[in-house]
Structures are given as structure tokens and as C-alpha cells.
Design a protein that fits this description.
212 residues; alpha+beta; globular; eight-stranded mixed beta sheet
Length: 212
């Protein structure tokens, strides 16, 4: 099925109010954009606040599947704004179960490779004002995922996305989530993931620690 770019957003960190007038600095609140240049460090005009857990060349591009929006809106009875999860691009037909660590895609003039699943944080619940959303994202594995940029280039709001090369190991993002969140002591599953050379370094280090 054809992959479609449903939303394209970037933004620099800004203060976000949540709960009872609490405030945090976060890069989750991005704005729709017509076009931007994608570099190995991310889009020009995009940024993160928490450099320890976000950003870096293995996490230059954040993707979230469009199909999950209707699921969450139905489950929680609340409409979600575009880019609610802080993703740069929202896409259809690229679900976590169908894409793999190491898969290579073209996006406009740029080329990217899936490097890891996304480990969601509480900022998602703060932004959406849905306190149980984070728990459900972890339970389902509908986290979205992060990518490294192999070729820099211009991306537009109507750019085409296409798979250039599927990784032969076929380790899906959903499999990595199931392993990371529920079966991290399962050496067979962990080793299956670790055998993928294209896995992001942070994930590799974390999984190696779990199995000793």
C-alpha cells in the first residue's frame, strides 16, 4: 500500500504549560511546515530540549503512524492535534509491525534509515492532558520510531515516501518494543535485535546491559 505523508511539523523547544499551570521546556510542540531541509542532525528549524533522551544522529527524524490517531481518539474520547506526539512526520502505512530496524526510505530528496523504536516519555501525557495515554502506548507498542539520515535533502509537506531497501533481518519495530518493554531478559529475542548492525548505539548499550 502506498505510504502517505499526513503531517509535517518542526519546531524549536518552547515552554509548555500543563496541569495546574505547571511549565516545562520541551520540543514536543511543533508547527506544521511547508518545507524544510533535512540534515544528519535533523531538520533545520527543529530541536529538542532534553539532549540526553532526544536528538543525536541516530534520532534525527521522528515518525509516528497516522493510523494510531483514530485509535487513541476513540479510546480516550478526545481529539488530538496534528503532531501530538512530537513527531516530525505522521505517515500512513508504516506501522511498527510493518517496518524494521535498518529499513531505508526516501523522503523527498532525503534518504533515511530506521535506527530504533521511540521510548515515549511523560511529556506526551502532559501535552495531551491524557494521563493514561503513556501507559497505553507502552502496552500496545504504538510508540513511533526514530531514524538516522543517510542522505541530506529538502522535504516538502507533499513529498513522496518510498521504501528503497528492506533490511534482511526483518526485525520489526514492534518486536523491539515487545522485547524492550516485556521480554528484556529473553536472551534469544535480545540477541536477535543486537545482531542488526544498524541498531542505534543507545539501544544496543541498554539491551546489552539487560542480558549482562
Amino acid at each position: 500500500m502506498k505510504i502517505e505523508l499526513k503531517n509535517f511539523s518542526i519546531g524549536l523547544p518552547k515552554k509548555m504549560k500543563y496541569s495546574d499551570d505547571k511549565e516545562i521546556l520541551t520540543g514536543i510542540c511543533k508547527d506544521k511546515i511547508e518545507e524544510a531541509f533535512l540534515t544528519v542532525d535533523g531538520f533545520h528549524g527543529d530541536g529538542v530540549a532534553d539532549l540526553e533522551h532526544h536528538g543525536g544522529r541516530d534520532r534525527a527524524l521522528c515518525i509516528y503512524p497516522y493510523e494510531h490517531y483514530s485509535k487513541w481518539e476513540s479510546e480516550f474520547g478526545e481529539a488530538l492535534p496534528p503532531g501530538a506526539f512530537g513527531e516530525n512526520i505522521t505517515v500512513s502505512n508504516m506501522l511498527e509491525k510493518d517496518v524494521h530496524i535498518g529499513d531505508i526510505f526516501r523522503l523527498g530528496d532525503a534518504i533515511f534509515q530506521i535506527s530504533q523504536s521511540r521510548i515515549p516519555c511523560s511529556t506526551i501525557s502532559k501535552r495531551t492532558n491524557l494521563p493514561f495515554l503513556l501507559k497505553r502506548i507502552v502496552e500496545t507498542g504504538y510508540t513511533g520510531y526514530l531514524c538516522r539520515v543517510l542522505k541530506e535533502g529538502m522535504v516538502k509537506h507533499d513529498s513522496e515516501i518510498s521504501l528503497l531497501e528492506g533490511h534482511p533481518a526483518q526485525v520489526s519495530v514492534l518486536f523491539t518494543n515487545d522485547t524492550y518493554f516485556r521480554n528484556s531478559k529473553d536472551k534469544e529475542s535480545v540477541n536477535k535485535i543486537l545482531k542488526v548492525p544498524e541498531l542505534a548505539l543507545k539501544w544496543r548499550e541498554s539491551l546489552e546491559k539487560r542480558i549482562g
